[in-house]
Amino acid sequence: MVNRRISRDLKERAVALTTIGHHPVAVADILGVSGDSVKRWGRNLAAHGVVQRKSPLHGRKRILSTRILEDIQDLLRSSPALYLDEIARWVAITYGQQVSVKTIHRSLKDLGYSVKRLRKTAAQRDELTRAQWKADILSRFRADQLVFADESSKDNRTSERRYGRAPLGERASEVLSFRRGIRYSILPALSVDGILTVRVVRGSVDGSAFYDWVISELLPKMNPYPGPNSVLIVDNCRTHKSNAVRDAVEAAGSEGCLYIFLPPYSPDWNPIEEAFSCLKYHLRRDQPDWEDTGRAPEIVLMEACMTAVTPEKARGWYAHSGYLTR
């Protein structure tokens, strides 16, 4: 197995969670590291005041000191989109040391950094609240108990391909008939075994439409807690916050189901988001003319959803969101 480099910030957060009462194994599951590592970082902090003991340097002498490299890592945690020349200029201004872009590039490579597509996250997101929520969910529930629901909109532009091929120096162009398509909303529920149920409607989904779907289609497919498919998890948008929906879910069956909200700004912990991306890819690749098949678009979208989202993919998305160990 190839060891991956784990940032100091993540190690410190892991230890901080254990100090407020979370079990090291639960913290390890949340952050995707081993329980032994979490315990070792805690011992290092107690004995040496840092989560990782500094090891002696080997090989050629570094141009940048350990302190500067650590400060560069702190800088990139807050500003990951900086260019190499901007980092070099920051080092010159902060430490009075002139370094080349090549030196910055080599140093970051040695630290395990690479260029990646930026993932946008909300500044309002509270990582401690998220960690506590995930620890609570993992300690109370099995993956097969969790059902995730959300809605997504589609129109004829959803299936337009975004990339094409052309000779060097020429643009990739395609002639399209531009028209304003009818917008459809897809309202599925995802379990660890795939799509539990799905409804497609014209227009958007409001609170009453969501309530009707939960009552008439979703709850009949769920089970009383603590059985499989007995915990419904949704984001905290206004559509989902109806007391009527909560009362209906908690009254379902003889014992009722549980109704839980994701922490704010946490779409990465809703595996159904990856199901929506998979559906969009399926429509672009295999059904670009889904509105013009001669069949009801609602039926076409429902069938596409059931085809694109397989049990194997669902389990992968649950694992990627941290609810299932492969």
From TrEMBL:
Domain (Winged helix-turn helix) ranges: 84-136
Q: The Tc1-like transposase DDE domain covers which part of the protein?
A: 145-285
Superkingdom of the source species: Eukaryota
Entry's Gene Ontology molecular function annotations: nucleic acid binding
What name appears for this protein in its UniProt entry?
Answer: Transposase
Q: Which organism is it from?
A: Trametes cubensis
